[in-house]
């Protein structure tokens, strides 16, 4: 890799570190290509990405960035998982690490907050943006459906009473 390519990689990594809601660092030693492709597919499905980069270039890209604290985790065979959603990448990596012991979570960063492996698990346990939106919409919609049910109930009661009266008359 020549100097221009290295500078391009450092710029790309710098943009990733600035724009991501969460970055998770993990060791992937011993994982097969198929396992790595599976991880990438799951991450893509969740709206995130997986990136393998030279640790030295990643450390250079981290200089002056809010998540610079993850530089200590960049040793050995590391993979960076990231997403704009502050929960998605952590959730996918945590779930994948439970199924595949070759993927070992080292830590990560959420904005300027450093995360240890327990912190990544805690973030993964949080509801995602979509889950929060769905629960808020459910809370907003519940009173309206209760009102509609209350309004509709007397009419159905009257209809059943009328049908009962008709059956007795006939």
> How helical, in percent, are the residues?
55-70%
Indicate the CATH class of the largest domain. Answer: Alpha Beta
| CATH H level, superfamily name of the largest domain | Ribosomal protein L10, N-terminal RNA-binding domain
Query: Which structural category fits the helices and strands?
Result: alpha+beta
Task: Explain this structure.
This protein has 170 residues and is an alpha+beta fold. It has two domains: 124 residues, Alpha-Beta Plaits (2-Layer Sandwich); 44 residues. Helix content is 59%, strand content 15%. The chain contains six helices and five strands. The chain has a five-stranded antiparallel beta sheet with strand order 2-3-1-4-5. Helix 1 crosses helix 3 and helix 4 packs across helix 5. The radius of gyration is 26 Å and the shape is elongated. The mean pLDDT is 84. InterPro entries: Ribosomal_uL10 (IPR001790), Ribosomal_uL10-like_sf (IPR043141), Ribosomal_uL10_bac (IPR022973), Ribosomal_uL10_bac_type (IPR047865), Ribosomal_uL10_CS_bac (IPR002363). Keywords: Ribonucleoprotein, Ribosomal protein, RNA-binding, rRNA-binding. This is Large ribosomal subunit protein uL10.
